[in-house]
């Protein structure tokens, strides 16, 4: 059974790059275009990890993570923030919301896969 990763980003090209890297490493990928879309995908299915952008329309990544952590099934789901946002205060805000790792774009797929393999059980 392959592990399921939810990729949340308003950029289709980023979702594609991240999705290709993850699928190539044997993961199953579920895609969402923003936080609100991502919440609709949290319908009780097992999600082993979330990779989310920070700045998105409708619902940003940090709000999404806070909302996700309110759901009993996803309280302990690890989150990696993948973003152009490198500011320390944003990182602290992300960590406070529950993000376990912070990867700044542009990123190397190997770097992301390394973070994923460290966080995924």
Automatic annotation (TrEMBL):
SMART domains: REC. The keyword 4Fe-4S does not apply. Residues 4-120 form the Response regulatory domain. The gene is cheY-1. Pfam families: Response_reg (PF00072). CDD domains: REC_CheY4-like. InterPro entries: Bact_response_regulator, CheY-like_superfamily, Sig_transdc_resp-reg_receiver. Keywords: Phosphoprotein. GO terms for biological process: phosphorelay signal transduction system. It comes from the Bacteria. The modification 4-aspartylphosphate is found at residue 53. This is Chemotaxis protein CheY.
